[in-house]
Write a structure and sequence with these properties.
The chain is 24% helix and 26% strand. By secondary structure, it is an alpha+beta fold. The chain has two domains: 78 residues, no CATH class; 154 residues, Beta Barrel (L,D-transpeptidase catalytic domain-like). The strands form two sheets. Strands 2-3-4-9-7-6-5-10 form an eight-stranded mixed β-barrel. A two-stranded antiparallel ribbon has the order 1-11. The two termini are 38 Å apart. This is L,D-transpeptidase catalytic domain. One of its GO terms (biological process) is cell wall organization.
Length: 250
């Protein structure tokens, strides 16, 4: 069934390659859609395939999920589409501004009111949810030390491959919420899930990229779609109908 739906784009390759030995990069050599989302950060074929899908979903304002659902199928198949972000004037004036959509698990970076980049993320699980709040980045750290959650676990030194924070940390703080941050991970397949203790996890390559250009004091608004809408933010994908052009000679 999926083969018929996605035949025009060739994106069905994503599904089949999860269980075969074909080189994903080579197979998509002539494809236009998902190959641009494949990173160089891992050798694991399945992980690269997963990240290609998650990045595509994030860039198209689709709920980030490692499964190709109806919304993703449509975005892959339709060529006439437009990603539309509506933001308040406060954000339009800011040099940099970050919005994290908890419903869609997407981190969006805005530069002077325009979408600069969208990233897939992992967020807090139900028992330790990521709070809806307007944060500010207060610190940045390379190879952060992980303290073990107040003695619950053994601390892990910065830069260690099993460090849950990965190799980058962008700390978030307000008077109400402390200890939250945007960081990398030691569990690559967790991206796209509600699985953390409340922090925002990113693909390691993505957070390293974000770290380089986002300055301290950047505002970070985090909320569900319902909350973001109250703040004047909407993130959607719109499909446009092609108008039929009549030939006057007919």
């Amino acid at each position: 069934m999926l083969n018929n739906i996605l035949k025009r784009t060739g994106a069905i390759i994503i599904i089949f390659l999860l269980s075969c030995n074909v080189c994903y990069g080579e197979t998509l050599e002539n494809e236009d859609i998902l190959k641009n989302y494949i990173g160089k950060e891992f050798n694991a074929k399945q992980l690269d395939e997963r990240y290609a899908l998650l990045r595509f979903q994030a860039e198209n304002n689709i709920i980030v999920n490692p499964i190709i659902g109806d919304d993703t199928k449509k975005a892959l198949e339709e060529t006439e589409k437009k990603v539309i972000d509506t933001i308040p004037k406060e954000m339009e004036k800011a040099e940099w501004f970050i919005v994290i959509n908890k419903t869609k698990k997407i981190l969006t970076v805005y530069n002077k009111g325009e979408v600069y980049k969208k990233y897939p993320v992992a967020l807090g699980k139900s028992k330790t949810p990521t709070p809806d709040y307007k944060f500010t980045i207060v610190n940045k750290t390379q190879n952060p030390y992980w303290g073990g959650m107040g003695g619950k676990y053994k601390p892990i030194k910065g830069g260690a491959p099993n460090n849950p924070l990965g190799k980058r940390w962008l700390g978030l703080s307000t008077e109400k919420h402390k200890g939250y941050g945007i960081h990398g991970n030691s569990s690559p397949f967790s991206i796209g899930e509600y699985i953390s203790h409340g922090c925002i996890r990113m693909i390691n390559q993505d957070v390293e990229e974000l770290y380089e250009y986002i300055p301290i004091k950047t505002k970070v608004w985090i909320g569900t779609e319902e909350v973001l809408k109250k703040w004047g933010i909407e993130q959607n994908i719109q499909y446009e109908k092609l108008e039929e052009v009549c030939d006057n000679n007919e």
